[in-house]
Amino acid sequence: MTETHTGTYEVVVIGGGPAGLSAALVLGRSRRRTLVVDAGEPRNAPAAHMQGYLTRDGMSPAEFLALGREEIARYGVELVRDRVVDVTGVTSGFAVTLAGGETVHARRLVIATGLKDELPAVPGVAERFGRDVIHCPYCHGWEVRDQAFGVLATAPMSVHQALMVSQWSKDVTLFLHAVAESELTDDDLRRLAAAGVAVVPGEVAGLTVEDDRLTGVRLTDGTTHPREAVFVGPRAIPQTGLLEKLGAEMQETPFGAYPVVDPTGQTTVPGVWAVGNAMGFGEQVVNAASAGYRAGATINGELLMTDLDAGIRV
Asked: Residue 63 contacts by C-beta under 8 Å, 6 or more apart in sequence?
């Protein structure tokens, strides 16, 4: 990490997760003066490992980010631990104000601020999230395969989650919790039956834990159902405030409002790209890194052509 962040950069990357670091790596290798502003709040911090990234399968998220920071430093990319509190467009580009009081300027911006997971307010869920309370079968399904699964329903879409996780275990129970039985459609009931998913109505009061291991799901009626892993569907809260402030066009999705982007991540605001979970809910680590790469390469080419067209020798 360097502390020489002063003056004007060609690109400021806001967010130091896989998407932001990947964009910064490409830009650094392209000899672009780049600053990464990282608040240090990665979405997958609770997880002990990440899966599905070829050659990095099973690596801890913290180690992955540490290696990424080392790599961008080799190419002169600067990184500061701080939070962006304001962004405005100026004639020459953008002014980026940091919580520490400094303002830096950039010709182009990469917004990689991700999203936050709001967990259901059930005792034990937050404490065990990322361990035996999980949300993504592609991220964690293999590690808990063939165990007794519970799925905590927070919305009708939780039915889809229960059906998906049945690929990893034949012992799956859907606890309706915040969903009324009347909200289940005929198709839901048919598919749940076909997948062998048991359905338990009633509100969940909490999780039972013994010797630091999840052992069951307890209902408000006092009954406890033995379970070894519980899947939840957190409410996604996109961290898109800076994009909205800049006037980016947003579109509503079942998982919140995200910016309208082209295939490279460019938003409707000239000079601003959005990557990773700032662009969409379903971006896993490998997808986020890919999006950052595309954005970085696109920005480098766009800056090059802009300068050549202006008669600037590069």
From this structure: none
